Amino acid sequence: MLLHNFLEFFGREYPDQPFAEFQGQTLTYGEADAWANRFANSLLASGLAKGDRFAWLSKNNLEICLMFFGASKVGIIPVPLNYRLAPREWAYIVSDAESLMLFCEDEYASGIDSVKSEIPSVKRWVTLGSDSKPEGWQTLSDWLEEDATKPAASVCESDQCYQMYTSGTTGLPKGAMISQGNVTNNIQMAHLASSITPRQERNLIVAPVFHAAAALSMMAMVASGSTLVIHHEFVPARVVQSLDEEAITMTTMVPAMIQACLVAVPDIATRKFEKLRLISYGASPIAQDTLQKAMSVFGCGFAQGFGMTELTCIATNMTPAVHERAASGEPGLLLSAGRPQMGTEIKIADENDEELPRGQVGQILVRGPQTMMGYWRLPEATDSALKGGWMHTGDAGYMDEEGFIYIQDRIKDMIVSGAENIYPAEVERAIFEHPAVADTAVVGIPDEQWGETVLAFVALKPGQTLELETLQAFCRERLAGYKIPSKLEIIDAIPRNASGKSLKTKLRQPYWEGKQRQVS
User: Fold this and answer.
1) What is the SS3 assignment for 148?
2) What is the pTM of this model?
3) pLDDT at site 284
4) CB within 8 A of 166, min separation 6: which ones?
5) What is the Cα Rg of the chain in Å?
6) Which of 136, 290, 386, 516 has the fewest CB atoms within 10 Å around its CB?
7) Does residue 220 carry a pLDDT above 70?
8) CA gap 84, 109 in Å, rounded
């Protein structure tokens, strides 16, 4: 099975079924498949061939969704860019991928123009606007071929489907090569985990589609002939309104988005959400009280996924049934990331990749059909990440007797204080329980006596205050003494990347200036 097979099937059998709604425009599956054919034929007419790459820079829109399917038809590889990056960061990724073309939303064209000299591989520049274009650019409407016939091309499951770059919280981003088989297998897993009803779902796409989770959520909906309701970007009040008034049945959000909807939308308690049946979340920890409040307010099922770009998206799933079990007297389950997806193996391993007993913390290793092909032109990094056929996630965690995975933290973020290992996620979970705390990130900083000590960055809820001594007393009831933060910094917001992970390297960096050993 290939990604574009889904669009072609529903375009043929149900051409009038709504494919997507975006800013007042509705596109049917028949129209969507025709556009994808035009896009594929235009790539070929521009001189690109199977295995070539192009970059795409935009917020959510119809085109970013459709281009994945059009490119799939001819085996040409999209490289979606994070629009929140700086121009130099875009240039690095575009150049590293050796992209031959770049598609760009109008508002980012000037940023790209400032670094054009750093990306000599690009031969053609296309803006998504139709009315105007910067010098040296072509508009998408002018570039698109009129030919909407299916292109003749040979594509198979082992061929690369797209290339997404890791978030780069340490070092330079790496291009994870995702195959057609990776994608279609992960789509099947998503269908089984979410009980998707073909042609009946209305999925709100609000997380950025350049990210693995939102992209897979979008693709899984198309693979069921369902309808995408696309938001250009995340606006909490607009999301809540859409979930209530537009018959949305499903959506995927990161915890920070859920928190923002609960806090920043005054009338959320008056909303009904009558059609909403499932909210999927992941990418970062969520405060237990936030999750419980969300379950009460939205009145729908919740599902959590753990994964990473290198695993296409999903490796584990905590189903709505497990959330209900947690709400019925086992709240500790809400701290887990669920159990392995169908067809996925997970083991907790020591430094020699030997499996550890249940309950012991080690690195989480994953093996399954969603595991990436490798990193683009980084054979040593690929061999290290996929050693022994297992994806070495870099996440520390343990597995309980029922097979639930509990993530403790990124191994690189572990704090060693007085020979004791401290996993920041454990400290963060305790801090999240404080009623004044909206968000937190915990890092290790140098300490002459203990080697490292615990620093907590905290963003407060509106109108709240918090002193170090108060936080320490609160944590003392929940944590061993050596895990309690010795320092506290109140900041406006915790910096996070597009996938919702806190940028701990950025938070740590000032404290390790001039030091020989870096925690990261």
Assistant:
1) coil
2) 0.85
3) 64
4) 173, 174, 176, 308, 309, 310
5) 23
6) 516
7) yes
8) 13
Measured distance CA(281)–CA(30) in Å, rounded: 31
Whole-number average pLDDT of the chain: 92
Percent of the chain at pLDDT exceeding 70 = 96
Q: What's the burial of 465, exposed, middle or buried (CB within 10 Å: 0-12/13-18/19+)?
A: exposed
Type of residue found at 202: R
Long-range contacts of 411-416 (CB under 8 A, 24+ apart): 411/363, 412/170, 412/519, 412/520, 413/443, 413/444, 413/504, 413/519, 413/520, 414/444, 415/442, 415/443, 415/444, 415/452, 415/454, 415/519, 416/444, 416/451, 416/452
Among 396, 413, 369, which residue's Cα sits nearest to residue 505? 413
Question: Which structure tokens are listed for 10?
Answer: 């529903």
Structure-token match 């799939």, residue found: 72
The DSSP bridge pattern shows strands 301-306 and 250-253 to be unpaired
Q: Three-state DSSP class for 135? A: coil
Which is it for strands 278-282 and 250-253: parallel, antiparallel or unpaired?
parallel
C-alpha 117/C-alpha 114 separation (Å) is 8
Q: Beta strand 25-28 with 18-22: parallel, antiparallel or unpaired? A: antiparallel
| Residue 192's pLDDT band (cuts 50, 70, 90) | confident
- The candidate with the shortest Cα–Cα distance to 78, out of 69, 68, 87, 70, is 68
Task: Work out the angle at residue 506's Cα, subtended by the Cα atoms of residues 234 and 513, and round it to the nearest 5 degrees.
Answer: 170
- The stretch 29-54 carries a mean pLDDT of 98
Task: Write out the two tokens for 204.
Answer: 């709100």
Nearest-angstrom CA–CA distance, 241 and 293: 18
Contacts of 419 (CB under 8 A, 6+ apart): none
Amino acid letter at 450? W
Rounded to whole angstroms, the Cα distance separating 300 from 209 reads 24
The number of angstroms, rounded, from the C-alpha of 11 to the middle of its chain's C-alpha atoms is: 28
Task: Tell me the per-residue pLDDT of 382-439, one tens digit each, with 9 for 90 and over.
Answer: 999 999 999 999 888 999 999 999 988 677 777 878 657 787 888 898 899 999 999 9
- Closest alpha carbon to 387 in 353, 361, 354, 346: 353
Burial environment of residue 17 by CB neighbours within 10 A (0 to 12, 13 to 18, 19 or more) = middle
Question: From CA 504, how far away is CA 510, in angstroms rounded?
Answer: 11
Task: In whole angstroms, give the CA distance from residue 230 to residue 20.
Answer: 7
* Residue 299, CA distances (Å) to 291, 303, 318, 324, 326 in order: 12, 13, 17, 11, 15
Alpha-carbon distance of 33 to 128, in angstroms, equals: 19
222 three-state secondary structure = helix
Beta strands in 212-344 (DSSP E): 227-230, 250-253, 278-282, 301-306, 316-318, 339-340
Identify the three-state secondary structure at position 229: strand
Pairing of strands 278-282, 301-306: parallel
